[in-house]
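Re: [help] complex structure
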Amino acid sequence: MSQSNTSPAVSIEQLCHHYGQRKALIDVSFDIPTGTFLALLGPNGAGKTTLFSLLTRLLRPSSGSIRVFGADLARSPGAALARMGVVFQQPTLDLDLTLRQNLAYHGAIQGLSPKQVKRRSQAELERFGLWARCDERVRDLNGGHRRRVEIARALLHEPDLLLLDEASAGLDLESRTHLYQHVRNLCRDEGKTVLWTTHLVEELDANELAVLLRRGRVKGQGELSALAAAQGHGDANALVLSLSEPAP
Amino acid sequence: MSHAKLGLASYWYCFRGVLLRELQRFLQQRTRFLSSLVRPLLWLVVFAAGFRAALGIAIIPPYETYITYEVYIVPGLIGIIILFNGMQSSLSMVYDREMGSMRVLLTSPLPRGWLLLCKLLAGAIVSLFQVYAFLLVARLLDVTPPAIGYLAVLPATVLGALMLGALGLLLSSLIKQLENFAGVMNFVVFPLFFLSSALYPLWKMREASEWIYWICAVNPFTHAVELIRFALYGQWNSMAFSVTAGTATLLTLGAIAGFDPGRGILRRKTGGKPG
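Output below.
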């Protein structure tokens, strides 16, 4: 890794975003330390997907800034995006193309040579146990396997930061656990920084670092169990349930 | 690896990848390919046959002899192939944007202008397959341009297709909702086609009405068709080239400047109909 571990992988400062009159994010500020796994928690409509769209530069913030490994996303988008791997909430694979073709396309738009793409595709698909199926169409894979292909694709250009937006949505419990463990290992074994967006707290360990988002504002950050205690809840589940309740 | 500054080669790999994907998708849509050929062939076989008797075509450049109406109409029909393709590929970009694969493209660290240009160029190149298939059938129907024409028509078609693809992309950025795209077909595609030299030579238009003639004469689609017409007979037309190239440049720049991937998200969040 080219950056020292002391500077954060992502630094979000006073980020605001509104859709017309409706405020979706209000003064959101937090850091993701390099090499850590951070869960972005919040009920549906809390602003998670808006934040995700701002991080991937699909939206421009109304105000505030995002820095990725020191590169300002607005001023040096190329430098920031090059170090980012993204898994979107919606499936984004080309169903009629093969696994290999999907990965080749992604590698190419990341600027990798065909040789690099070939080598990296094999490495990632092997890691996910899907190399034997590389010439099958994505349409023939089940939901869990498709998600794995999307993660393999996001890792193709060896990014240091992995962003996942509700990556486990729509999967059965076993696939969800597997996915979570796998991404957790990437963080532990390879030093990747991970932002894992979810509204399902049960898939996370109690000692996981988390940022709580509610109605577009950061409601707290820290270890999940400590956050729950600080907010007067017995466990993280109760904490997230409380987030969905209407404001007093 | 990825942290190294992206060199020129990366731009080429990106273009190659986008083009390959368009070709792979094209190969899977054989029915779309066939149906896109039916349209110009119907014009050529049915429409031209009916008009053959009604319309006498004088000797006008680039033709050196009297020609049949079928011969006259072929470049205009190439024009309609690339016009429909341009609109369709822009539609697919709007659709892609909604479906998420445009999101993936936009995670590329390369400049967005380049990514869009790659999409437009790839779409233009894929159109060539349809154009050559059409020319092959036209040859069987006795429209036989010289051999050099088949080569020269390639860059002319790509330039024309780039211009029309950029127009489609610009329109898709300006249109609020996808439903309105059908309106654009009626208000943009058909006027562009009918008010051009695709179906009738400009002098014929002038006989009918001076102001219709002028609209046709300034229509960039006329110039794209004329560029293709001259190229198909191995000739160069500076005016047609300048207007087509200039319009293609302006529309491409406008489409890149106007491109905003947040629009689809904005529509959903503000409660508008999804586009």
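The interface with chain B takes residues 2, 19-20, 22, 24, 50, 53, 56-60, 77-79, 81-84, 86, 88, 90-92, 94, 96-97, 101, 104-114, 116, 157-159 of chain A (CB under 8 Å).
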